[in-house]
Structures are given as C-alpha cells and as structure tokens.
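We were asked to recover a plausible sequence for a given structure. The inputs and outputs are reproduced exactly as logged, with field labels preserved.

PROBLEM: sequence recovery
POSITIONS: 374
GIVEN STRUCTURE:
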C-alpha cells in the first residue's frame, strides 16, 4: 500500500525540516506495521509541494512476523574493529491490520492525501480552508477475517477535531457494540456505536462537529450508515444506487423533527440552516446545537453479490458538484472490465471534475472494490 501526502510550502515544512516524522497515517494503538519513509530529495527545489511516501510493508517472514527494517547484516569487514558498534537485537513485530484517519498537527498544511490500499483507495484534496477538515478510516482483516472490513469518510466543520475523533473511535465502537449484541441486531449495534462516539466526543468539550458515512463488510453483508451529508453510492452493474440519504435541514422529515423539538430552520444565503447556522441536521459533535443535531445514523443492509461492483464513499465536496450516476460512469471504466484497474485514478478524476465545476470545499473520495470481499 502506498500513501502520499502533498504538503504546501509553509514555514512549518521548510527545506531543513525533518519531514520523515510527520506522517498523516496512524495505525492502531500499541502495535503497528513498520513503515519506510522516504524523503523526496529528488524533487525540484522550485516545486511548491513536498511529498511523503509510506511504502507497503514487506512480505511476512515464514514465522508470520515482519523483521524491522534496521535489521541488516554487517558488511565492510575491512574497516577497523574499533569503529564497529554492536547492532541491537532483532525486533519481531506482529502483523496488524492498518487503520488510518488521524493527521498530526504538523501535517495540517497538507493539500493532498493519496492511499492505495488492499481493496480500497482514498484521495483527499484540501479546498480553500487553511487546513484540511476531512478525515477517513480503513481497517481490513477484521478479527482475522479477510472478508471483513470497515471504512469511513468524515467531513468536519468548525475545525477537524470531531472528524479526527470519529476516524479514530467510531469503527472500534461499532465493532464493540456488535460483539456485545446478543440478538445479532446489527443495525441497532451500529446506531449504538455512533451514539457512543458522539457521547465520548462531547465529553471532550471541544467545539465543532463532523458528518460521517461508514461501510461495514461482515458475514457477506454490506452495512452502510450515515449521519450528515457524506454519501455512499454503489455501482450495480453500472447503475448508480445511493445507499444513504443526506441529512440536511431542507429535508422535510428533518425539518419537522427539528421544529418539533423547539428549533427552527431558515434559509441564509440560499442554504437552509438550523438556527441560521449549521447546514446539516445530523452528525457527531456540534454541542451548541446538540438538542437538534443528532448523531443517530440511518442504516441500510445489502447482501454482497457479484452485481455490486464497487462502492464510493465521499464528502459533500464531491456530491455537491457531481451526480451519483456521473460518478459511477466516470469511475467504472477504470475499475471494472479491465486487466489493470486504476481506482485511484478514478478518484482523482472525480475530485478534479468537482473542482472544475467550482467546488471550493475539501473533497474526500474513497472507492472500495467489493469483489474482494465476496
């Protein structure tokens, strides 16, 4: 898997800065796969962007472990022994599924994120904001099963804190709730995972909120949930099928719910907003509007079958400018019926099309090749 972050030429990332320590990827807590970071010294000095690449970990050794990259044999026996230093003992690091989402503070000046994973790709591009507020998460081989995975796109507003928190915690909370469920009611477990993440974030007493869309692949089912206006669209033999419905105050049932709770919705600069402020009606966080902005998701469950080709999860930066069917039509030739699929190129083209049509927002697109999980 190859991750790429393009970072603007800011004082934080001056030519003398050590960029190798500033990765946008974060693996699960205490044990993580080793990563090889290359400083792109070959880049042109006049280029306005700097690039970090995280290479896919090497194949496992026969014992099921990855050797630390610093473990190499001594050479140059002609050197005087007085200058030789004893190398540390080998480190055996267990292989773990990699999850992504959190972007360190030093990386907030990034412009572009590219990830080419196993069965999925992600492409994110910063809009006109000072810092990227979108985040994502991806975990494969859940519970040691290659047919189980969980993915998410998170669109922050009022800062990136809520999106970061959701990217780091929502997937774990959903899996925990599923494990605790005695009746196997997965829709209720996913809802509880969203509500738990929201409750935990509110305890942080941090401003801002985040829209979310997640896709859980488990036991031959595709479980798609959303809170806010991030959207999931699947290609069913080339026909676009939206699996989520945007939660906006302009939606009649959402407006009725808000007004029944004593709130109001009005139109400001052509956009319907809650109390003239927020343009989405569900999400994680938004403490100042929590009475009306709920975190309860809507969920749809489909059985995985060959006619479901690929799934697109994206923030509203894409969907505000590109229709569901346009997205499928553009991506499909690069993803199906070809010996060399280029899903990452498809994501780039979708983002470029949205920008060409005038999007100024952060845009995040994840494409999941469903055939890998049948």
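RECOVERED SEQUENCE:
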């Amino acid at each position: 898997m190859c991750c790429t972050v393009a970072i603007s030429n800011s004082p934080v990332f001056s030519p003398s800065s050590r960029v190798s320590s500033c990765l946008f990827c974060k693996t699960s807590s205490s044990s993580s796969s080793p990563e090889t970071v290359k400083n792109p010294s070959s880049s042109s000095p006049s280029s306005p962007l700097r690039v970090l690449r995280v290479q896919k970990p090497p194949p496992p050794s026969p014992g099921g472990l990855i050797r630390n990259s610093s473990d190499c044999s001594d050479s140059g026996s002609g050197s005087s022994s007085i200058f030789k230093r004893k190398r540390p003992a080998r480190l055996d690091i267990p292989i773990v599924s990699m999850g992504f989402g959190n972007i360190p503070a030093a990386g907030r000046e990034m412009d572009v994120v590219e990830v080419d994973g196993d069965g999925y790709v992600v492409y994110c591009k910063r809009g006109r904001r000072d810092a990227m507020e979108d985040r994502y998460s991806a975990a494969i081989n859940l519970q040691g099963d290659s047919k189980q995975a969980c993915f998410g796109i998170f669109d922050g507003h009022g800062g990136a804190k809520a999106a970061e928190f959701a990217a780091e915690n929502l997937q774990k909370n959903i899996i925990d709730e599923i494990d605790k469920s005695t009746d196997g009611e997965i829709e209720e477990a996913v809802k509880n995972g969203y509500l738990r993440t929201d409750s935990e974030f509110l305890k942080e007493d941090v401003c801002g909120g985040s829209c979310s869309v997640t896709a859980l692949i488990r036991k031959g089912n595709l479980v798609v949930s959303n809170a806010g206006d991030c959207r999931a669209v699947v290609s069913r033999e080339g026909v676009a099928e939206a699996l989520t419905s945007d939660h906006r105050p302009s939606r009649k049932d959402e407006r009725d719910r808000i007004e029944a709770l004593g709130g109001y919705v009005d139109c400001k600069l052509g956009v319907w907003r809650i109390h003239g402020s927020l343009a989405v009606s569900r999400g994680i966080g938004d403490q100042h509007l929590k009475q009306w902005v709920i975190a309860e998701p809507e969920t749809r469950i489909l059985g995985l079958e060959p006619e479901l080709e690929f799934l697109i999860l994206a923030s509203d930066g894409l969907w505000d400018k590109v229709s569901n069917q346009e997205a499928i039509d553009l991506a499909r030739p690069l993803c199906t019926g070809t010996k060399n699929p280029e899903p990452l190129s498809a994501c780039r083209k979708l983002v470029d099309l949205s920008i060409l049509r005038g999007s100024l927002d952060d845009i995040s697109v994840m494409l999941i090749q469903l055939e890998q999980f049948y």
